[in-house]
Design a protein that fits this description.
By secondary structure, this protein is α/β, with parallel strands linked by helices. Helices cover 37% and strands 16% of the residues.
């Protein structure tokens, strides 16, 4: 099970006990774009305690951080995209970073201190003495980092991606704009505004491509689901994946956060995206393709079931481009050839080949 989900479950267990008791670049630039003394940068982020958002958290970045710790797959990639190597104190990914990272960041990672799971706690991080921690909401639990206030009170800045909400809850609406703001914020924090602008322009170019080329087609019903074993999470329109689908002209059913097999059958979507995490490379689709109960669904009969990488729709930062691309080409596969031409000189090239199993045809080829 994904460590982020384990953290979520442990956090809920702890809370329950309390209640019961009472331009194409091969590598990022190595120098900041701003010359002279950096100006003050005010960043509005969120305050998190025990995996819960407590409110807004405004912080003043008067200097570029020099001792950064990044916790989480996408968070590590964001830091590698914007920070110099000597500004990165340590990184930790929930799974294999060497497998996950895009090629342009794998080489840079080799010179960075990679933390172990056992080091992601308050005691060890206090010893390391960071000046900025970039981590998902699930990292702020009693057994890990506690709260953003804990670190801010010790003069350590924190940055928490807004869309790193629990997949098992639909508490806060996630938006494309929030991810673009995430990128802008990093451009400001690390004084790499031009680089941030280039990433955002690249993402906007993908959105524009689908707007201009999808034409006046009938709306299609699209679901995004993730199998947790006993539970199935539904990424409806409150989630970033649902927002992307809606933005690209699809219809996302309104569902509960946790659904059963019968709910998916009843919705009978035209297209089904299966979220893959824990380095599954798309093999998690088998849960749906191999179960006879789903065989009469339109998406199965028409072979319109696709895998989608968790990190492209869950606090993705620059990886939101991959999420938009994956969803857009699943909804409009006839546009693939024209889209690939557009990506020739992209600052953020597609990494779709990371998915070993992209759709049902990849399973058939193995047979």
């Amino acid at each position: 099970m994904n460590e982020r989900i384990v953290s979520h479950v442990l956090g809920l267990s702890f809370l329950l006990s309390v209640i019961l008791a009472g331009g194409c670049m091969s590598s990022p630039p190595e120098k900041t774009e701003m010359q002279g003394t950096p100006s003050e940068i005010m960043i509005k982020n969120i305050s998190v305690d025990d995996y819960s958002v407590k409110g807004e958290n405004e912080q003043n970045f008067s200097e570029v951080p020099q001792r950064v710790i990044a916790i989480g797959m996408e968070e590590v990639e964001m830091v590698l995209a914007f920070a110099d190597m000597d500004q990165i104190l340590g990184i930790y990914g929930f799974n294999d970073l060497q497998d996950f990272l895009k090629p342009e960041y794998k080489e840079k990672m080799k010179g960075v201190n990679i933390l172990s799971r056992g080091e992601v706690n308050r005691e060890r991080l206090i010893e390391l003495n960071p000046d900025l921690i970039v981590a998902e909401q699930c990292s702020y639990t009693p057994g890990a980092l506690q709260s953003t206030d804990f670190w801010n009170d010790r003069n350590v800045k924190t940055y928490v991606p807004l869309s790193s909400n629990s997949p098992e809850k639909h508490l806060r609406e996630e938006t494309i704009e929030a991810e673009l703001r995430y990128i802008r914020d990093f451009g400001g924090i690390f004084r790499r505004e031009q680089r941030a602008d280039a990433f955002i322009a690249d993402i906007q170019g993908v959105l524009d491509f689908f707007d201009e080329n999808r034409g006046n087609r009938p709306e299609r019903r699209v679901m995004v689901v993730e199998n947790f074993g006993k539970n199935i999470a539904s990424y409806d329109k409150t989630k970033l994946a649902g927002q992307i689908i809606t933005r690209l002209g699809g219809v996302v059913p309104v569902t509960a956060p946790i659904i059963g097999k019968e709910d998916i059958i009843e919705e009978n979507p035209d297209i089904l995206f299966v979220v893959c995490s824990d380095g599954s490379h798309g093999e998690s689709m088998r849960f749906f393709t191999d179960d006879p109960i789903f065989r009469e669904m339109e998406c199965i009969k028409n072979s319109e079931i696709y895998s989608i990488e968790l990190e492209s729709i869950y606090s993705p930062g620059i990886r939101i481009k991959d999420g938009i691309e994956r969803i857009g080409l699943g909804m409009y596969p006839d546009l693939r050839s024209d889209y690939q031409k557009l990506q020739k000189d992209s600052i953020n090239p597609s990494y779709i080949d990371w998915l070993r199993y992209k759709d049902m045809s990849d399973f058939k080829q193995e047979s």
